[in-house]
Amino acid sequence: MTETAKYPERVTIVRNGTDGDFKSKLVAARPYAKGEAISKIEGHQENVVKRWSSVQMGPERHIELNSELVFMNHSCDPSANIVVEKMEVVATRDLKEGDELTFFYPSTEWDMSQPFACWCGAKECIKQVSGAKDVPAEKLANKFLNPHIQKLLDARQ
Ligand SMILES: C[S@@+](CC[C@H](N)C(=O)[O-])C[C@H]1O[C@@H](n2cnc3c(N)ncnc32)[C@H](O)[C@@H]1O
């Protein structure tokens, strides 16, 4: 995994355990207002093979972020969204310095290469995170979803 710090004034990696434990996280390096861009997505690697660290940006398009953003964990009540149309990470609520930055992985991922049991503990937790293809429509009803995921969901129904 790349360790490049592209946005040191905006986000901070908090390391826990060793690589492969997947216990590390990303936190806000300063406060953000709801709707504010936390960072741009830039300098990424295009059209990679899907893997645990890649992010799906279109029906067949997967990228490697190549930045601290790879440390964003999934949450079913996320503090941020990856907004593909803007190529930005955007705050879903007012955030304080030190708040964890998470996004809802099925908002970008349709069929994940490395599913996992969710630890987020949110009231509406989907429990198993494997991509939007496996999430019942009612559990996605109030979620931010990127257009490629919405399109794939429409085709599933
Ligand atoms: C892109 S990494 C995120 C950063 C990761 N925590 C690390 O330390 O490298 C994605 C991996 O983190 C873990 N992960 C992220 N969010 C999780 C969650 N809500 N529940 C359980 N594991 C999670 C999973 O192992 C997943 O494959």
TrEMBL record:
InterPro entries per the UniProt record, alphabetical: Flavunoidine_N-MTase, SET_dom, SET_dom_sf
Domain of life of the native organism: Eukaryota
Gene3D superfamilies reported in the protein's UniProt record: SET domain (2.170.270.10)
Domain SET: 9-106
PROSITE patterns xref list: SET
Protein name (Swiss-Prot/TrEMBL): SET domain-containing protein
Organism (species): Powellomyces hirtus
